[in-house]
Amino acid sequence: MIHLSLIGIGTGNPDHITLAGVRALREAELILLPRKGEARSDLVDLRRLLCRSLLDEAAHSRVVEFDLPRRDGRDDYLGAVDDWHAAIAETWREQMTQRLPEGGRVAMLIWGDPSLYDSSLRIAARLKGAGPEQESGMALEVDVVPGITSLQVLTAEHCIPLNALAEPVQVTTGRRLRERGWPGDAASVAVMLDAGGAFQSLAPEGLHIWWGAYLGMDKQCLIAGPLAEVGPAIVERRAALRECHGWIMDVYLLARRPLLK
Asked: Checking CA distances to 194, which of 8, 181, 211, 235 falls within 20 to 30 Å?
């Protein structure tokens, strides 16, 4: 039996990991750190920093890095993601069974929280053989240690609530915002996984935006204001940051109504 702990670690600030996360990390017999390529080396560097900060020297031998498969860039997005998840699941399986052939406790450090636009739980379900089309899976028990999400850090850094008073919030992706526009009757829309500037598909009049990139990191960048005024500046700044660092993670909140009234 493999016991897998998916530990939410927040958005890059070592102070964001909870005491429960620290305990799960210290109890693990194997800690797997995914590498996503040179352009995103900052992400594994921060995971390494967490392990060095929270584990004693003897435990460092339990930390193992592995290369994450890359997603196919074909137009069939959902099909490409499904194949990608299958390849990641097989990589996880290989690492766990080779390094803990008799079973044991494994920890993985998950950016943000495993519940919000993260696929670690779906990949773990593949390992367990969940679903009618899955092959017989491995003996796997999964638990989740919640973490601070990028939306929480965004609203904290801008000192705003997520919702207008008594109003709903819609959380969506940049792809969906482009395809479908403003969702339903939401007064606030939080946008994640935007390849860049999906808000430009909206009529900016009456909209306010709070944007953040590299939240929780030393390179954090924030911009806020009426969308008509600051939208072009966000697009320009985002492109410059991506060019400088080779990658970018950003998120933003749009609102039609004041959030502090």
From this structure: 8
Tens digit of each residue's pLDDT (9 = 90 or more) over 152-202 = 999 999 999 999 888 999 999 999 999 999 998 899 999 999 999 999 999
Q: Which of the residue ranges 22-26, 115-119, 127-131, 137-141 would you say has the lowest mean pLDDT?
A: 127-131
Q: Residue 131 has what pLDDT?
A: 43
Cα 193 from Cα 246, distance rounded (Å): 16
Burial 15-32 (b: 16+ CB within 10 A, else e): ebbbeebbebbeebebbb
From the list 182, 200, 201, the residue with the least C-alpha distance to 236 is 200
What is the residue whose two structure tokens read 């973490």? 147
What pTM was estimated for this model as a whole?
A: 0.87
Kindly list the structural domains of the chain, giving each domain's residue range(s) and its CATH number in brackets, ordered by start: 2-148 (3.40.1010.10), 151-255 (3.30.950.10)
Q: Where are the beta strands (DSSP E) in the chain?
A: 2-8, 30-35, 63-67, 104-110, 140-145, 169-173, 188-192, 208-213, 221-226, 250-255
Coil, helix or strand for 194?
Answer: coil
110 with 6: CB under 8 angstroms? Answer: yes
Contact assessment for residue 240 and residue 226, using Cβ atoms and an 8 Å cutoff: no
Q: pLDDT at position 133, please?
A: 45
